[in-house]
């Protein structure tokens, strides 16, 4: 077996340096171009990636890290796990990813604690696993034709089944992986990478047994390529000795999130992830070399801590950034160069101690009276009907507005003209809401490109990029701001718009802010301060904004925290508890300056919040709106202990479908059975940004009809 290369990366961005794949996908989906054209763009991106990695001097080139939509979905296809109902679709792959006429897509959820979303494989009694190795084999051949030998990257059997909730099917799936190893060996592939990130989340004894079974069996396969099992996003913990006892030749460890393994790995190659794939900062060579020098193994390869999928392509595409900041940054290309440089150096240990940083003092618990007192004051002040109807914040964002924003940046539209259009859009949203009969209105967020970037652009300590796109799912990308310095709010951000929107109507219009945890979770964050310190700085800026909104008479202020769960450490429990404690404290720091009469709302986008419902209650918001309709109102089984106002969504906004009034009524009836009626709010699952006005108006009209039927019975 040839030795593992001295330098590698676990994966690379694939959307294209100029989001070429996004454009090609959307054009194909809209029927504007052919599948052949899409495949041509894909091949171009793959070829360009291999060329650039090789040119940077990287030895071990990965393949099959490209995907037209998602690598977990690719693995499902590889294993034949395509549910029957999609097989007849014109394009079964995209039917699973996005749905088609009359066929809902497969579920999608977050990839561990990243902002990347994968398609959840559906495995049931009817699933018959059957290998279809066309994609990985095709990429190996394609690279070879360009002159590159590559290492196919595939989601490992244990992680795949854990994500699908079907670990009991291990035996069958291993049959496919064995066959795959045979096919790759026949193709002349020297190494294969099996990704097992699920192992870093405190594996149960059953999961450890699965690791043992899987890698004993795959290790015993005859004439196979070298086996490289990659872990990332944390420590392998107990899974490491288990894996080390199997015949796999190489083990990947995340030395950024996790520690240097204490297990002696003599006989193995350790693929040491010392260059972070999760941030945008340059690597400290001193620390990386020390970590590399501390690994006890027969061979150490320098790598990234995880796939570079989670960072943008190239700092060179950001000429407008402040040079001082630019010199601190490393995107994918720069990180590859770091890996190559580190691999060329001599390693020596041990790791120096990190700089010690003082934590901020305890948060002063202050401000608001207990919920019951506030609720009474707000009822008196706001005089809302029972079952108040509201929305989550955004109204449909039109292409014209996005174009107008781009025109301001390009200098072809004046700021005044842009603001006039934004005001017109707000007025339109307000009139629609009045006409429909909603009780608490929103301004619709037309002035915001994105709920985090908008605030980042108005706060000190943040930089925004021009091309720093990171794939979120499918063709969707975000451009996370870079939080690089101390955060401050030089002047009010939303007050001007909130005042304007309120001037249009007698109904209350909610002030709309993004919470400190979410702002930080969806940014790349400085690494020279503990995360909680950074979050507290943002909380203080939000707090100032809350105060200013209140001062101009805004009586309801929503502070969204859809990312509250995202920063939750994968393991262990103590770390999760510690996180929730400071995350909740940060939220309260942001909102507790409001008086009792001011109603604080918050919003969370997901439904399996059951596990952190106590923490959500701890946010102490007067009203929490939360996704529910999309997931069949499962949340209602867990809300009994929730002590404040709650709006479990009655309209699934993720689909263009308009729910009927009866359907909404049924959901509302279930809600008032689960919660005291005086605490129930009526709202959609999430913001309406991605829908059309036509859909939104029809759906909200039905929401109002259903609510009125219930009110009539009170
Ligand atoms: N207020 C935001 C909106 O409606 C909330 C978005 C979100 O929940 N992610 O768009
Ligand atoms: Zn939401």
Automatic annotation (TrEMBL):
Give GO BP annotations, semicolon-separated. Answer: methionine biosynthetic process; methylation
- Lineage of source species: Bacteria, Bacillati, Actinomycetota, Actinomycetes, Streptosporangiales
- Which residues make up the binding site for Zn(2+)? 603, 605, 627, 686
SUPFAM superfamilies with a match to the protein in the record: UROD/MetE-like
Among InterPro entries, the record links this protein to: Cbl-indep_Met_Synth_N, Cobalamin-indep_Met_synthase, Met_Synth_C/arc, UROD/MetE-like_sf
> One Pfam family name from the record?
Meth_synt_2
Output this protein's name: 5-methyltetrahydropteroyltriglutamate--homocysteine S-methyltransferase
Cofactors demanded by this protein = Zn(2+)
In the Enzyme Commission scheme, what number(s) does this protein have?
2.1.1.14
Tell me which domain of life the UniProt entry assigns to the organism this sequence originates from: Bacteria
- Cite the GO molecular-function annotations of the record: 5-methyltetrahydropteroyltriglutamate-homocysteine S-methyltransferase activity; zinc ion binding
Organism, as annotated: Nonomuraea turkmeniaca
Ranges where the Cobalamin-independent methionine synthase MetE N-terminal domain occurs: 7-297
């Amino acid at each position: 077996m040839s030795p593992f290369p001295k330098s590698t990366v676990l994966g690379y961005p694939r959307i294209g340096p100029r989001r070429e794949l996004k454009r090609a996908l959307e054009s194909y989906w809209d029927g504007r171009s052919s599948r052949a054209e899409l495949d041509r763009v894909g091949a171009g991106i793959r070829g360009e990636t291999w060329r650039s990695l090789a040119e940077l001097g990287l030895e071990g080139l990965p393949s099959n890290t490209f995907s037209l939509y998602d690598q977990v979905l690719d693995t499902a296809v590889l294993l034949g796990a395509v549910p029957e109902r999609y097989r007849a679709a014109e394009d079964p792959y995209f039917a699973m990813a996005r749905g088609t006429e009359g066929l809902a897509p497969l579920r999608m959820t977050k990839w561990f604690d990243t902002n990347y979303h994968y398609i959840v494989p559906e495995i049931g009694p009817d699933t018959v696993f059957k290998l279809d190795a066309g994609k990985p084999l095709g990429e190996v051949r394609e690279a070879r034709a360009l002159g590159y030998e590559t290492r196919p990257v595939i989601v490992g059997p244990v992680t795949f089944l854990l994500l699908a909730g079907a670990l009991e099917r291990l035996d069958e799936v291993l049959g496919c992986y064995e066959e795959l190893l045979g096919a790759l060996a026949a193709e002349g592939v020297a190494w294969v990478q099996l990704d097992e990130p699920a192992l870093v989340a405190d594996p149960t004894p059953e999961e450890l047994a699965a690791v043992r079974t899987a890698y004993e069996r795959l290790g015993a396969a005859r004439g196979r390529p070298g086996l490289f099992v990659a872990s990332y996003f944390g420590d392998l913990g107990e899974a490491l000795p288990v894996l080390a006892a199997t015949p796999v030749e190489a083990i990947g460890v995340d030395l950024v999130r996790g520690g240097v393994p204490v297990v002696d790995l003599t006989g193995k190659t350790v693929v040491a992830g010392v260059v972070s794939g999760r941030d945008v900062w340059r690597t400290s060579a001193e620390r990386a070399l020390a970590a590399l020098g501390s690994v006890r193994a027969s061979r150490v390869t320098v790598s990234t801590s995880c796939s570079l999928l989670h960072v943008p392509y190239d700092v060179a595409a950001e000429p407008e950034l402040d040079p001082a900041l630019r010199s601190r940054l490393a995107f994918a290309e720069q990180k590859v160069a770091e890996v190559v440089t580190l691999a060329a150096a001599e390693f020596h240990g041990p790791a120096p101690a990190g700089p010690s940083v003082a934590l901020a003092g305890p948060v002063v618990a202050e401000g608001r009276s207990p919920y019951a007192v506030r609720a009474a004051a707000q009822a008196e002040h706001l005089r809302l009907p029972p079952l108040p109807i509201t929305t989550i914040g955004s109204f449909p964002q039109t292409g014209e507005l996005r174009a107008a924003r781009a025109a301001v940046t390009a200098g072809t539209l004046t700021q005044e003209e842009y603001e006039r259009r934004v005001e017109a859009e707000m007025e339109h949203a307000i009139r629609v809401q009045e006409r429909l009969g909603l009780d608490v209105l929103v301004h619709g967020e037309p002035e915001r490109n994105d709920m985090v970037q908008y605030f980042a652009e108005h706060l000190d300590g943040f930089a925004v990029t021009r091309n720093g796109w990171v794939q979120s799912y499918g063709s969707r990308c975000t451009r996370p701001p870079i939080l690089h310095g101390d955060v401050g709010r030089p002047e009010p951000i939303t007050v001007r718009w909130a005042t304007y929107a309120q001037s249009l109507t007698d109904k209350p219009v909610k002030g709309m802010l993004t919470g400190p945890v979410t702002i930080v979770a969806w940014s790349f964050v400085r690494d020279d301060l503990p995360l909680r310190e950074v979050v507290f700085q943002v909380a203080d800026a939000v707090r100032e904004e809350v105060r200013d909104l209140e001062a101009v008479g805004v009586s309801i202020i929503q502070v969204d925290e859809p990312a509250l769960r995202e920063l939750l450490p994968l393991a262990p429990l103590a770390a999760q508890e510690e996180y929730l404690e400071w995350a909740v404290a940060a939220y309260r720091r942001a909102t507790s300056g409001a008086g009792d009469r001011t109603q604080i709302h918050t919003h969370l986008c997901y439904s399996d919040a059951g596990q952190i419902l106590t923490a959500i209650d701890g946010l102490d918001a007067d009203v929490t709106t939360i996704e529910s309709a999309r997931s069949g109102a499962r949340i209602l089984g867990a809300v009994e202990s929730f002590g404040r106002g709650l709006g479990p969504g009655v309209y699934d906004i993720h689909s263009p479908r308009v729910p009927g009034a009866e359907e909404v009524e049924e959901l509302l009836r279930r809600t008032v059975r689960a919660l005291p009626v005086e605490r129930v709010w009526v709202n959609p699952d999430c913001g309406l940004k991605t829908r059309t006005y036509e859909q939104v108006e029809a759906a909200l009209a039905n929401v109002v009809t259903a609510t009125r039927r219930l009110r009539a019975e009170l």
